């Protein structure tokens, strides 16, 4: 498990492109036959990916967690962006199809990832935050997630939002998680933009063609900085930063948050004309 340390707006303003990428971009999460984990010092969120192929993969407990098992003091959100697979939690098997979600509560001692087909594996995106209480392990399929339509073709941001782990959905201590699909011809996400000082956010961009990219914008509203992001790469968004992007084609992204509350709508909007 690698680490990313929190830095302030003042430090970020002085970073060049390579330094920005080193601090905020996670380039490789889905490695065949491996569980990849990144420990961030933004609300102590762990971002990860599990890609089982011929063998099942247990969720490890890295030494620097100083825990007997990974979820001793944590909760976990899992969203499958690959093909069909299973997650086994303390002996109970949960089937996850493409873009289905599973929440695993604090105290679960064994989590095992497996793919139905080693050639076309599942790709489990993982978000984990510290937890203070136990909530039940719960699966939600995409069909059960009550999609919301937003945006318009005229502003190139027509999109469908699927909310899984949030105040009115799967219950958690502090984890909020869902995904957004942009319609063909739409390229902008989260516009108009916003910040939320009360919690950090992580974005995973996927379903992006190999020869296409997303230009992700971060930074304070009056000090925005761009990062080019490829398919299946993740961005860490500090609480003080905007988080919006424009793709060279349509795409899908997973948003996940940890911090002060579970209110999906808790955000401080930034007008387009105030961005610079």
Classification by helices and strands: mainly beta
N- and C-termini, Cα separation: 36 Å
Q: Per CATH, which architecture?
A: Sandwich
Give the helix level as a range of percent: under 10%
Low-confidence stretches: none
Give the C-level CATH assignment: Mainly Beta
Q: What pattern of helices and strands is seen along the backbone?
A: EHHEEEEEEEEEEEEEEEEEEEEEEE
CATH superfamily: Jelly Rolls
Global mean pLDDT = 95
Largest sheet: 7 strands, mixed
Shape: globular
User: How many separate domains make up the residues?
Assistant: 1
Our count of helices gives 2
The portion of residues forming beta strands comes to: 35-45%
CATH topology title: Jelly Rolls
Number of strand elements: 24
What strand line-up does the widest sheet have? Answer: 1-3-4-11-6-9-12
Could you explain the architecture of this structure?
- The protein has 276 residues and is mainly β.
- It has one domain: Jelly Rolls.
- It has helices at 9-13, 17-24; strands at residues 2-4, 25-26, 34-40, 46-51, 57-58, 74-80, 85-89, 92-96, 101-104, 111-115, 124-130, 138-140, 148-150, 159-165, 176-182, 188-189, 193-195, 199-206, 214-220, 223-229, 233-237, 242-247, 252-259, 268-270.
- Strand 3 and strand 4 form a beta hairpin.
- The longest helix is centred in the N-terminal third of the chain and has 8 residues, at 17-24.
């Amino acid at each position: 498990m690698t680490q990313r340390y929190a830095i302030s707006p003042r430090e970020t303003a002085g970073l060049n492109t390579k330094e920005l990428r080193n601090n905020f971009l996670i380039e490789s999460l889905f490695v065949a036959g491996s569980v990849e984990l990144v420990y961030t010092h933004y609300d102590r969120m762990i971002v990860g990916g599990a890609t089982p192929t011929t063998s099942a993969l247990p969720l490890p407990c890295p030494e620097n967690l100083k825990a007997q098992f990974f979820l001793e003091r944590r909760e976990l959100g899992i969203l499958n962006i690959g093909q069909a697979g299973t997650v086994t939690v303390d002996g109970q098997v949960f089937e996850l199809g493409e873009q289905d979600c599973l929440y695993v509560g604090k105290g679960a001692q064994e989590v095992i990832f497996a793919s139905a087909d080693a050639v076309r594996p599942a790709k489990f995106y993982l978000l984990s935050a510290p937890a203070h209480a136990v909530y039940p392990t719960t699966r939600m399929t995409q069909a059960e997630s009550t999609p919301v339509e937003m945006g318009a073709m005229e502003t190139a941001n027509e999109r469908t939002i699927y909310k899984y782990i949030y105040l009115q959905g799967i219950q958690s201590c502090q984890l909020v998680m869902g995904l957004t699909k942009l319609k063909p011809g739409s390229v902008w996400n989260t516009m108009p933009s916003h910040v939320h000082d009360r919690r950090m956010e992580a974005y995973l961009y996927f379903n992006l063609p190999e020869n296409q990219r997303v230009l992700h914008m971060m930074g304070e509203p009056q000090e925005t900085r761009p990062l080019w992001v490829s398919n299946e790469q993740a961005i860490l968004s500090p609480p003080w930063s905007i988080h919006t992007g424009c793709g060279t084609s349509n795409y899908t992204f997973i948003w996940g948050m940890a911090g002060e509350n579970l209110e999906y709508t808790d955000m401080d909007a930034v007008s387009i004309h105030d961005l610079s």
